[in-house]
Design a protein that fits this description.
With about 280 residues, this protein is an alpha/beta fold. Helices cover about 30% and strands about 20% of the residues. The chain has a seven-stranded parallel sheet. A five-stranded mixed sheet has the order 1-4-3-5-2. It binds S-adenosylmethionine.
Amino acid sequence: MGQVKEITSLANPVVKDLRALASKKMRDRAGLFLAEGLKLVIHALDLGWKIRTLVFSKTCSENVLIENTAARTIAVGGLVVKTSYKVMATITHRDNPQTVIGAFEKNWYNQEKADFRRSKLFLGLDRIRNPGNLGTIIRTADAAGVSSIILIGRTTEPFSLASVRATMGSIFAVQLYRMSEKKFIDWKRYFPGLVIGTHLSGAVDYRAIDYGNEPLILLMGNEQHGLSENLVAVCDRLARIPQAGQADSLNLAVATGIMLYELRRNNLKIDKRSA
Ligand code: SAM
């Protein structure tokens, strides 16, 4: 493989810069984030995400897929690095790193593009704090065929290592918007469909609501505090998922999964040919 830089030292500046992407401040500064695993990196490239650096372990130099991926990276002006397992563990802050890592440009969608004529279902997340929850929700939304996700207020960053890992590649398949609560409420004024909030004191069983065919916004609340009062005020319905037993509430990601699958009930079918 030509044009591949071999790095052995942990002190190499390229390694230091990649390792620094574990911090939000550095991800913001560089506009980059890390994704781990060859399959994920190929998937991201196929979907048009811009790669800046491809890192692969020396142990898999003869792999044709890696050679192709390296060629694609070089073709778009990216850097390809071959290194040791130890260096890869340092970059990803884990003991058992994948053998391939990609540093990609972050991609936020503009609020202006959050167009309800194109997307029928938006998922709004109020001040979500836990990266594992966010990643799991992104993965679940993708599985349910929901790709427009709005992060409202101060949230955990979807491009953190923990969140990206939990998405299992779905980070590359969704459109992520971020809005302050005020911006969201302003944007929502022009929304022609229903806003469904989920709330522990919601008056209606989520299975009893007629969601209709209109575009919908599903709002999910913060892990600790639930939906803010301002957001509750813009909801057309407050849905509750019934619970038995002693649990106070459901985990946010689980509740989101239940709601999304209910809303997408008529759109999701098992493809018998692939069964
Ligand atoms: N202490 C918070 C409260 O009082 O709202 C608990 C929040 S709960 C862990 C996080 C979010 O998950 C909620 O805001 C809501 O969106 C959703 N959720 C969890 N359990 C739910 C349920 N049984 N019905 C409706 N939404 C639920």
